[in-house]
Design goal:
Length: 246
């Protein structure tokens, strides 16, 4: 069984009091995070998830609400005596950006000797083995300097796809194709916001997204205000703590 738990389902600004993006994927062979926003360490502990149980972190792009929690995760692991290896896999430039961010937040931390091995991997269109899964990443349309990618994880006969942050792009069709679950951002309801999807655009393309199930996440206050209306229409919305078994 593959289990998906939304540790954090919010946008960058804590809309609705939600934690920033952090999605836990658990399978028979291990457990990994898809994105790790700045609030994720708090969110994990509030959810009762021991950080030491996480084998790997996959990063869709290099914005703080999606990867800013990694320095805190690493330092927590150091201080709590972690010994197990940790894999961090992200888009091109992730390793350098992580080092820079650690130095900005905790000077000297990127150079300190760790009690546990950290393996840094670069994700791309060719499949990468991470924690017993096969991961591919496709470029999407978001702030270019953040190196934005959507992620597709295949494990135990299941496919979980995730848009990352992006405006509408045909890459979403490829990511969603055949997925058991497609997690897609829907930052706004009908307002076009550069580099982000809105619900009405997604709805107009829904037939092209050949996934078995789609859940919308990274919701702004405008979308949350209409959550009752959307749910009534059969639209699935993520929420902190929501768990799905595939």
């Amino acid at each position: 069984m593959v289990s998906i738990q939304f540790i954090g389902s919010g946008d960058a600004f804590g809309s609705g009091g939600r934690f920033q993006t952090c999605i836990r994927l658990t399978h028979q062979g291990g457990s990994l995070l898809i994105d790790c926003g700045a609030s994720s360490l708090v969110a994990l502990k509030r959810a009762g998830v021991t950080p030491d149980s996480i084998d790997a972190i996959l990063l869709s792009h290099l914005h703080g609400d999606h990867f800013g929690g990694v320095p805190f995760f690493i330092l927590d692991a150091q201080f709590t005596g972690r010994r197990r290896p940790l894999v961090i896999a992200g888009p091109p430039g992730a390793a350098a950006r992580l080092s820079e961010t650690m130095e900005a937040l905790f000077p000297g931390s990127s150079r300190s000797e760790k009690r546990f091995p950290i393996e840094l991997l670069e994700l791309g269109p060719e499949a990468t083995r991470v924690c017993g899964t096969s991961v591919t990443a496709l470029p999407v349309i978001h702030t270019p300097a953040a190196h934005p990618h959507g992620i597709r994880v295949e494990v135990d006969g299941r496919i979980v796809a995730y848009s990352g942050d992006t405006e509408w792009t045909e890459a979403l069709v490829v990511l969603a194709d055949g997925a058991d679950l497609f997690i897609c951002e829907s930052y706004s309801f009908d307002k076009r916001v550069r580099y982000h999807c809105d619900y009405q655009t997604l709805a107009s393309h829904r037939a092209e997204l050949r996934c078995k199930r789609m859940i919308l996440t990274h919701l702004s206050e405008a979308v949350l205000a209409r959550s009752g209306e959307l749910t009534h229409q059969g639209v699935e919305l993520a929420a902190d703590g929501l768990t799905i078994n595939l």
